[in-house]
Specification:
Layout lengths: L18 E7 L5 E5 L1 H9 L13 H18 L1 H12 L5 H18 L7 H7 L6 H13 L5 H14 L2 H7 L8 H8 L10 H13 L11 H10 L3 H9 L3 H7 L4 H8 L5 H7 L5 H6 L1 H7 L3 H11 L2 H7 L3 H10 L6 H11 L9 E7 L16 H15 L2 E7 L3 E3 L8 H5 L10 H8 L5 E6 L21 E5 L15 E5 L7 H8 L10
Parallel strand pairs: 3-4, 3-6, 6-7, 7-8
Antiparallel strand pairs: 1-2, 4-5
Length: 526
């Protein structure tokens, strides 16, 4: 008779991010926990915008740590690293880190003479998802290791080229600003056209002519977009604005593959109201987000603004754009006009669709210490403090019953109402100095069913111990590490102590999975 393995019994699912039992000081002087190499690499990878300075680490230090971990594990655990890199560029949506990781993976395995494990060629191809990325990988390789490019790198790039190169890709990404043009890449990797794309051979030949003989290069007759683009380029400069403002102007720009970035150069004049209104229908969601200020300064009409708003608030467009929620928050914070506020709020809500509705009572702690105010990347106006607050608030709003707390040197409850806007609640968070995580947990933990901490984990010393030790062992504690530093603030990978990483709302699904006993694996294995 079954006594224990019954339907009501649940397996204890532990975090895949595991500490080793060894301790080290955090950057704030607290007693932290070291993690195994896979865990350290995962947390760093999902938070590492390459060359990005953080509060405690220089960009070079982080990049070196990332490359060192990839090279080590590429030899010790190649299957795992290959899975990480493919997932990182796909669902993880981390472009540059995955490209750097693939290059370091191949270099380490070639240097070690490793022959078993995933093919280096497939790993390279798996991280190249956009037409400009083959050139990015080549640029990184030649800058780091010279112009002797090994066959697996060439073959992986060639596989990606056959998949990615098309007429619109050529127009958008094959520009004189690039060190490696499409023609250069085709020459270097000897990419043959895809046999399932009969038009690609003519396109490749044109890309080579365009690179080496730009004055005489003629697009193939079968390439309708390129032919329309060439025809548009032949219009005299003095007549171009009339083409844009005339009947069918928007359709003609779209047929010729003209992007908003290229339009101003073609016009050889300012992007005025008419120019923006002509190109808006063909712009993608994130291009629209980037240009809200430009639309207002040009004075686009309410009708054009309605088109923009509808696309911003469309759940399918939000999903297709694959952007982090923080992009919408940054746009909301810096948009000059109130007419964009509601569609951006809707877009943010759609992008947080994976945040689970937690049952029972939850304590949610959001780190607002000084180190959290570093920007997410050199190109971002948003910081980790606000990123943490967005997720913490979204969790609280979706939970059955939650206490939302901000902490630093001090800590305080953040008030909110069910159904309230995430962006409205965000305005109530402050800047709170140091990182007394332990004291915040001790002050606010009151027999909750779970504790969730969104932080960079650089907790200060507290004689009561680390933050996770303040919660009974049978109560799960979930930590989201938003920075990827080496030392964590508590144990993980044992019992009810879990650590996740990254800036994607998909990570928050792990709470429900862990508590249901459904999964305790790496995201690409789930």
């Amino acid at each position: 008779m079954a006594r224990f393995n019954t339907k009501s019994a649940k397996a204890l699912v532990t975090s895949v991010v595991k500490s080793t039992g060894r301790t080290a000081a955090t950057h704030e002087g607290g007693r932290g926990r070291l993690r195994d190499p896979r865990s350290e690499l995962f947390l760093l990878a999902v938070a590492n915008f390459v060359s990005q300075q953080t509060f405690y680490e220089s960009g070079n230090t982080r990049d070196d740590r990332f490359a060192t971990l990839v090279r080590r594990l590429a030899v010790e655990d190649p299957q795992w690293v290959a899975g990480l890199l493919g997932w990182l560029r796909g669902d993880g949506n981390m472009r540059t880190a995955s490209i750097v990781g693939a290059a370091e993976y191949v270099k380490a395995r070639l240097d070690a003479g490793a022959t078993e494990g995933p093919a280096n060629r497939r790993v390279v191809a798996s991280v190249l998802r956009r037409p400009d990325e083959p050139g990015e990988l080549l640029g990184y390789w030649t800058a780091t290791y010279g112009r002797n490019i090994p066959k697996p790198v060439k073959r992986g790039i060639a596989d990606a080229v056959r998949r990615l190169y098309g007429e619109k890709a050529l127009l958008k990404y094959d520009t004189t600003a690039k060190g490696y043009r499409f023609g250069d890449i085709l020459n270097l990797v000897h990419a043959a056209p895809d046999p399932d794309k009969p038009w690609q051979g003519d396109l490749f030949r044109y890309a080579l002519d365009r690179r080496h003989h730009p004055d005489t290069a003629v697009p193939p007759a079968s390439a309708r977009v390129l032919a329309a683009h060439r025809e548009l380029m032949a219009v005299p400069v003095a007549e171009r604005r009339a083409v844009v403002t005339g009947a069918g102007g928007a359709e003609r720009l779209a047929a010729a593959g003209v992007t908003w970035e290229a339009l101003a150069g073609w016009l050889q004049g300012p992007m005025d109201k008419a120019a923006w209104e002509a190109i808006i229908p063909s712009m993608g969601a994130m291009a629209l987000v980037r240009n809200l200020r430009n639309f207002d300064e040009a004075g686009v009409s309410d009708e054009a603004a309605a088109v923009v708003a509808a696309k911003l608030a469309d759940p399918a467009e939000v999903a297709r754009s694959r952007q982090f929620p923080f992009r919408y928050l940054a746009a909301y914070q810096h948009a000059p006009s109130l007419r964009w506020a509601y569609p951006l709020e809707q877009a943010l809500g759609h992008s947080l669709g994976n945040v689970p509705a937690l049952p029972g009572r939850s304590l949610i702690l959001v780190d607002r210490s000084g180190s959290m105010w570093s920007p997410l990347s050199v190109r971002s106006q948003l910081n980790r403090a606000d990123a943490a607050a967005v997720f913490g608030t979204a969790l609280a709003l979706r939970a059955a019953d939650a206490d939302l707390v901000e902490f630093g040197t001090s800590s305080a409850r953040v008030k909110y109402r069910k159904g309230e806007s995430v962006l409205k609640v965000l305005e109530r968070f402050g800047s709170l100095g140091g990182t007394n995580t332990t004291e915040a947990v001790r002050r606010f933990y009151k027999k909750h069913d779970r504790v969730l901490i969104v932080t960079d984990e650089q907790a200060a010393y507290n004689y009561h111990g680390d933050p996770t030790e303040q919660v009974p062992a049978h109560i799960p504690v979930y930590t989201w590490n938003l920075a990827g530093y080496r030392v964590g603030h508590g144990e993980s990978g044992t019992g009810n102590r879990h650590v996740f990483g990254g800036l994607s709302d998909a990570a928050f699904r792990m709470v429900s999975l862990v508590e249901s006993g459904a999964d305790g694996s790496w995201p690409w294995l789930a």
